[in-house]
Structures are given as structure tokens and as C-alpha cells.
Amino acid sequence: MRMLSREQVAVMQARLMLICLGIVASLEPVYATDLTQFSIEDLMQVKVVSAAKVEQSLQDTAAAVFVITADDIRRSGVTNVMEALRLAPGVEVARIDSSRWAISIRGFNGRFANKLQVLIDGRTVYNTQFSGVYWEIQDLFLPDIERIEVVRGPGGSLWGANAVNGVINIITKNSQDTQGGLVTLTAGNEERAIAGVRYGGKLGDNAKYRIYGQSTKRDSLVTPDSYDAEDDWRIGRGGFRLDWTPSARDTVAVQGSLYDGTFNQNYVLPTLISPYTERQLSQVNTSGGSLQARWEHQYSATSRMSLQAYYQQENHEDSLYIVDANTFDLDFQHNFALTDRQEIVWGLGYRRNSDQFTDTAFSSVDPNDSTTQLFNAFIQDQVDLIPEQLRLTAGVKIEHNDFTGWEWQPSVRMLWTPHPDHRLWAAVSRAVRTPSRGEEDVQVSLLTVPPSILTGNLPTLVMVVGNDQLESEKLIAYEVGYRVRFAEQFSVDTTVFYNDYDNIVAIDTVSGQSFLEGRVFPPYLVVPLELHNVGAGSIYGFELAADWRPIKEWWLRLAYSYLYSDLDQDADTNYEHGNRNQLSLTSSWNIADNLELDVWWRYVNGPATVRELSSFENINIDPYSTLTVRLGWRPRKDLELSLVGANLLDKSHLEFVQEAYTFPVEVERSFYGQVKWNFK
Q1: Is 416 within 8 Å of 389 (Cβ atoms)?
Q2: What CATH number is attached to the domain comprising 476?
Q3: Which structural domain, as residue segments, surrounds residue 35?
Q4: Could you count the other beta carbons within 10 Å of the beta carbon of residue 560?
Q5: Whole-number Å distance between alpha carbons of 601 and 86
Q6: pLDDT tens digit string along 8-23?
Q7: Beta bridge partners of 103
């Protein structure tokens, strides 16, 4: 009898296991391209569209752009989009609690960072109810993301109001690139369970599709005294995408998704009886979906158009507010070459937002129902003044909204290429942020001041009251950037900026007349504080991204940002003014053909004090460092196993405190394993 080798026995065991499980797997490779297979030059040639609404290489873009690739996401060990954004310089990403995040670019961070435009495949997820993004519902299926384009600086001339400090565009993969099946499973002490499945196939010769589903359950964080914060959450999401090429000149993409989530969140809410505050663990229920269609037509080699329409619905319900919102958007864009040195991009857009609020014990919105409309048009002219050396880009967007009427947002950008390895660019832009429904129509109880002799021994309820006379916030931004490739193995991208703000909306502490509310027991005083355009000031800073590849198998990336805030006290009430530093260093090392080691270290040092508005208490946030280590192994081309340790340098740390109604919770050390299996 012939003896089998250890290798043959192992192969037979693997085959028997597959048969027992009823799995028929393909051995063909279906996984993301390895970052280390790119050269520095290849990365600088990555195509981006968010900065100019035309496809151009990263190095030829006259804006501060950073691209987070699919492989960046995979090798970073992150489990959601929010964590992936930490890879980009100048992006402030801080976790508030288990589900809520504060994410901004170049300052003004908060639960609803209102000066950042966020899109998914060109569809905005910026909500007009509170001017910001519900990051907790953007729990996307990470393997479907092709890249994340991060534009630091104003994008109002192309993307309209609210693209004040930056634009984040999350771009998903074409169905052509997601054929076959994929199963992912992540489990650990904090990431309790993340299970996803995707399958892509063909519909005839010209159409491809994919469908996917994902279920996520995350554990709660801890309070500073190490108690369970009980803010665990879960969310489920499913969707599809269809890419159809009916002719050589036409492409059609249709995609949709549905989600449903439950989040446990802690609130500190005002009461009229001692101790005048109460901690409440609230269950937040959220659900919604979107449907999007995009048609692109190529008229000629130098002329093309696109037409995009989408509808999205969101429902949010918790102790503070209940809202049901709907958005319909229609966008047309036409690109054409006027000459061989000049390209024009123009477009028209229409958006309709409707929402319905339900009053709660702590807030009311008057009127409860509202419908607003927005019309816009833009044009951009890009001309090569000196071919391959000097390019001028000028554009303007004009829009009309129901809050502030007509708004215009121009920009002028210049790109100089004195040498193939050197790029110098400069820009001057104007951008605006329009008020939200919450800022105009809300009335919300902020805090209760205990009785005293000064108040006649009555409790005093401080309320924030909206103002329908608010004007747009305004920004004039100045930027200068320099990109250089020193050698085949080393490149640097730097930006210096100065932002001048005016008309910033903030609570006016001297507004409103106090009055006695005696119709209830116990009676109490009411102090209404109105929102007004009372703030102004400046923010300036420096950003750097560097790539170094000392050997073929090893890649190093450095990201650094410095920001200084010099705002009126009324302009940014929840932050101490001053310096903010962020430093990130990533190392990607291919130990062997099928073995990867990734190390990611971050340091954050910002304003040390946050003022929590519902208590007017100052909360200290110490500088902190994080360390993430990932070990990835591909025993087969269709199977990837990885182990990740995150926040390894301390047991827990505080990153952010929401502006109101909350208390500090800390991010814990975590470990999790992940399995990815591709099949046909």
C-alpha cells in the first residue's frame, strides 16, 4: 500500500471538508489588487472625479485630494467606512459612543458636522433636517467600495451649498468587478458579529449585476470609570446594483439599498424636579432606503453627458426627536471639448426635500411638515494656458433654496507643472452653508438650572429656539499645494490653507426674554436662547501625505495635519480654540506571497477641553495614540484569513463628547478575526 505524504493528506482532508459542507468553490483569484503591486507613479496616476467632475489623474488635480483605495481599506483592518476615513490627512474622525461619530474636515467637528458634503456614488447623504450625516446608518459593505475620494477644501462651485470644508465621495465598484460570490465573517470582543454575502452574475451579454446583504452587531463602549455604557447596536442592510451597456456609447447603472437598525444611546436630559437631570438609555430605531439610476452617453470622443436621478427615504425615532424624511434629486451634466486645449463642464440640478417631525417631551418643530426645493446650475471652464505646463480652472455654481434664496459659489484654480515630477497649484474659492430645518423651526429643551434666590426659588429651563431669519454661513478659502515625486520610491503631497468664515450660526446667549410658565406644576422660568449669525473668524493649517517604498515588498505612508482655530467665542462654543495635530503612519509589508503584516499608528492632540452645552461643563480630552496590527494570510487564492488588534496601546480612551445630551464614553481595546471566501 502506497503511503501518502503529509501534503497529500492535507489536501484530501480539505476536499472531504468541502464535500461535507456541500460547498463547490472555485480556485480562481477574486480579491482586491495588492497595494504593494503599484508603483509611486501608478498611485499618482489614479483617476479621481470629485474635485472637478471630470476624470483626471490625482497628480493633475488642482485641489487637496486624497484617495483611499479598496486595498487601503482591506489592509487597514477597519470594519466600517468611518474608521477608514482616518487614513486621510486633514480628516477629523472621533467616536462619540458605540454607534455615533463626529467626522469633519478642517475644523468644526461635531455630531452633525455641518460643513462637510458626503456622497455615495454621487448621491448626497447630507440631511437637511440637522445639517450633517447620520454616520451610524452608513454601514456599507466594505468589499463593494472601489475607492473613497476625499477633497479637503471647498467644493461649492461643483457640489453646491454645504460643501464648505470638504467633500467625501464613496465610490462603489462596477458590477463587472464583483462577479461570483463572496462571504465575509468578522467576530471579536467588540465587533461581535459582522456577516456579509454578495453574489454577482450576468443578465445576457451586456448586463451584469450583484446583490448583497450584511448584518452587523457591535458591543457597547465603557464609561471613564469602566462601567458598561450599554450603547450596543445592530443594523442590517441589503441591496443590488445593475450595470448595463445597451450600446457602445451608452451605459446605465441602477442600484438600491434598504437598511434597518436599532441603537442603544445614552442621554442626559433636563427635568423640572431635583436633581434636574436624568440619565436615560434610549433605543433608537432607524430605517430607510434609496433607489438610484444613472445614464451616461458618449456623443463623441470629446463630448459626453450624464443624467442621474435618485430617491431616498429615512426614518429616525428616539427620545429627542422623531422624523420621517424623503429626498428626490435629479442631476444633468455635459462635458465637451471647446478646443483641443479647453474643456467645458456644465450642468443643471433639482432637489426636493420633504420631512415630517413628531414632537417629543424635549423638542418640537413648527411646522411639523415641510417641503423645500432647490434649483441649481453650474459651469466650469478648464483651459491649458500653456500645454502640459499651466492650466486654469474657473467655475461657479448658482442655486436657489427655500431658506436663503439665491446663492453663488465661484472658484478659481491654477495648476503649474514646471517639471514632470513637480506640481504646484493654488485656489481661491467661495462657499456657503445654508441653514437647516432644525435651525429655523426647532424649539428644544437644553438644560435646567436649579432654583436659587435669583430665580425666586424656581427652576429655570433653558431652551434653544430656531430663527427663520438666518442667513447662510460664508467662507472665503485660500489654498496652495505642492506635489513632488523625488524618486521612483518616494512622493510628497502638501497643502497650506487659510479659511475666512463669516455669519457663523451659533447660540446667542443674550437673545430672548425670560418668562414664567405657570400653567403646569411645578411652575418654572423659561429662558429662550435664539440662533443667530453671530460668529466669525479664521482657521488655517497645513496637511502632508507622503509615500515611501524602500523595497518592493514594503510600503510606508505618512499623513500629518496641523490646524489652528481662531474663531469668535460665539462661533464655536463647544471647542477650546487653539492647535490641533494629527499624525498617522502605516506600514504594509508582504512577508511572503500569501502573508501580510500591516501596522497602523495614530496620534491625536487637539483642543483639550470640550464644553458640553446641556450642562455647560468642561470635559478634558487628553492626547491619545492608537495602534492597529493586522496579520493576513491567504492559504488559497480564494480564501483570506486575518487577525486584527485595534487600540492596543491602552485599555480605553476618550475621543469626543457630543455637544449636548450626553456624557463621556471611551473606546476600548479590541481583537477580532475575519474570514473572506470567494466562490463562483
Answers
A1: yes
A2: 2.40.170.20
A3: 6-674
A4: 18
A5: 11
A6: 433 333 333 333 333 3
A7: 93
Strand partners, 551: 554
Q: What are phi and psi of 333, to 5 degrees?
A: -145, 140
Answer for the pair 283, 678: CB distance below 8 angstroms, yes or no.
no
pLDDT confidence tier of residue 579, bands split at 50, 70 and 90: confident
Q: What is the grid cell recorded at 439?
A: 435651525
For the chain, count helices (H), then strands (E). Answer: 6, 39
- Greater confidence, 449 or 46? 449
Q: What is the three-class DSSP state of 595?
A: strand
Question: Of the ranges 41-55, 218-232, 245-259, which one carries the lowest mean pLDDT score?
Answer: 41-55
* Count of domains forming the chain: 1
Contact 30, 678 (CB under 8 A): yes
Residue type for 461, please?
L
- Of 413, 437, 441, the closest CA to residue 427 belongs to 413
Check residue 574 and give left, alpha or beta (phi > 0: left; psi -120 to 50: alpha). alpha
Supply the mean pLDDT for the chain.
Answer: 88
Q: Is residue 679 situated within a structural domain?
A: no
Taking the C-alpha atoms of residue 49 and residue 18, their distance in angstroms, rounded to an integer, is 44
pLDDT of residue 56: 78
- Which of 115, 34, 46, 21 is closest to 72 using CA atoms? 34
Phi, psi dihedrals of residue 209, rounded to the nearest 5°: -145, 165
Q: Say if CB 144 and CB 172 are below 8 A apart.
A: yes
- Scanning the structure block, which residue is given the C-alpha cell 459542507? 21
Residue 1 located in a structural domain: no
516 exposed, middle or buried (CB, 10 Å; 0-12, 13-18, 19+)? exposed
- Cell numbers 465603557 correspond to 222
Q: pLDDT for 299-335, tens place per residue?
A: 999 999 999 999 999 999 988 889 999 999 999 999 9
Show the CA angle centred on residue 355, arms to residues 137 and 114, nearest 5°: 55
pLDDT digits (tens, 9 = 90+) for 332-354: 999 999 999 999 999 999 999 99
Nearest to 295 by CA among 239, 348, 351, 244: 244
In whole angstroms, give the CA distance from residue 515 to residue 560. 50
Cβ within 8 Å of residue 57, ≥6 positions away? 44, 45, 46, 47, 48
| pLDDT recorded at residue 4 | 37
Residue 680 falls inside a structural domain: no
320 within some domain: yes
Work out the pLDDT band at 256, boundaries 50, 70, 90: very high
Could you give the 3-state DSSP secondary structure of residue 568? coil
pLDDT at 319: 84
The three-class DSSP label of residue 245 is strand
